[in-house]
Amino acid sequence: MASLNDHEVKALFEAPNVAVISTKNPDGSILSTVVWISLEDGVLAVNSADGRQWPGNLDREGTVTVLAYPADNPYEFAAVRGKATRATDGDDDAHIDRLAKRYINQDTYPFRQPGEVRLKFVIEPDRVTYTKQG
User: Fold this and answer.
1) Looking at the domain assignment, is residue 1 inside a domain?
2) Contact 89/39 with Cβ under 8 angstroms?
3) Phi, psi of 57 (to 5 degrees)
């Protein structure tokens, strides 16, 4: 089994690769959403706006799977299954700005809506896998 510290896994999460986050809806169905993700100080983190479905799913249950892959080779990927919890470091707004800088080269997140509250979640992995083909 791989870990977040493995060179190939770290490279996928430290590069501006989008990820797919999958959470469980209240009815038991799975919701998968494309997200920006970061690996900072050995911790995976994602960010969203309060009121969206997938953050509500994480607040309710926390079970999550994240899959990251480079756009030029979807057959190389890292998958992380684990538990996500809301970050308590007060870094929610600064985190989305760091993600905006990395993904779209903007100093601040340009898509913020009036009154929007940002939420940062950190992911504690239970299982990490890495695959590379092609």
Assistant:
1) no
2) no
3) -60, -40
Q: Rounded to whole angstroms, how far apart are CA atoms 56 and 115?
A: 18
Report residue 60 CA to chain centroid gap: 17
| pLDDT by 10s per residue, the chain, length 134 | 899 999 999 999 999 999 999 999 999 999 999 999 999 888 999 999 999 999 999 999 999 999 999 999 999 999 999 999 999 999 999 999 999 999 999 999 999 999 999 999 999 999 999 999 86
**Non-local CB neighbours of 103 within 8 Å, separated by 6+ positions:** 16, 18, 36
Read off the DSSP letter of residue 99.
H
Q: Contact, 48 vs 118, CB < 8 A?
A: yes
Per the CB < 8 A criterion, the answer to whether 51 and 57 are in contact is: no
Count how many domains the chain has. 1
Q: CB burial class (10 A; 0-12, 13-18, 19+) of residue 88?
A: exposed
Which CATH number fits the domain that encloses residue 105?
Answer: 2.30.110.10
